[in-house]
Design brief:
The protein is of the alpha/beta class. The strands form two sheets. A six-stranded parallel β-sheet has the order 3-4-5-6-7-8. The chain has a two-stranded antiparallel sheet with strand order 1-2. The radius of gyration is 17 Å and the shape is globular. The model has no long low-confidence stretch (mean pLDDT 90).
Length: 199
């Protein structure tokens, strides 16, 4: 299972390049999503968790899961860098989406302090806390995005009693002490090999 994919991204709605692996090693290929899915089938990678990053993307994630039933499983959430663009008065949509049959988690949610132009920290914290409350109410695990915000993320998860519903620290890049602290909260740790940023 791929525990964190973004196949609803516009890049996958047309022909794209991707790295493929077979008996001859790695190669760069070009194709469309059905072709990539077939190659993953052949490699016994059959299931994917597809997180939302905005209310609009949550709709797209749910649609993608209809197109690939039993294959792609949706997580519903607002990414911290998108939190300022969402009206919290629309939070009923998030709850509605989260209650859709087949949804398995709340995510991708959390804090991102790398670039302060994205979203003010106080807004991110409010949206994060409210989404954790939805996860707790629905008893759904969470997929946590945390960039340059380990201390605040830890404290908010602790205050939310995340041990009652669990989740994963997606693309964790903290040291071993921080890893142990999150493990002690009942979280899982993912080292995803992200190469798009170095922090």
């Amino acid at each position: 299972i791929d525990s964190h994919a973004h196949y609803n991204n516009n890049a996958y709605k047309k022909t794209f390049r991707y790295l493929s692996y077979d008996k001859d090693g790695y190669s760069l290929k070009e194709g469309e999503l059905p072709q990539l899915m077939q190659e993953m089938d052949d490699a016994d990678i059959r299931y994917f968790i597809e997180p939302g990053v905005s209310l609009q993307s949550c709709e797209e994630v749910l649609q993608l899961c209809v197109e690939y039933p039993g294959r792609i499983f949706p997580a519903i959430g607002v990414h911290p860098t998108r939190s300022i663009f969402e009206k919290w008065s629309d939070r009923h949509k998030l709850v509605e989406y989260a209650n859709t049959p087949g949804v398995i988690a709340i995510g991708e949610i959390g804090l991102d302090y790398f670039n302060d132009e994205h979203s003010p920290h106080d807004v991110q914290k409010q949206v994060f806390e409210r989404q954790l409350a939805i996860a707790r109410d629905l008893k759904m695990p969470v997929s946590i995005h945390c960039r340059d915000a380990l201390a605040d993320t830890y404290q908010i998860l602790k205050n939310a009693h995340v041990e009652e519903f669990g989740g994963v620290m997606h693309s964790f890049n903290g040291d071993v002490e921080w890893m142990q602290r999150f493990l002690d909260l009942g979280m899982e740790i993912s080292y995803s090999g992200v190469v798009t940023f170095n922090s």
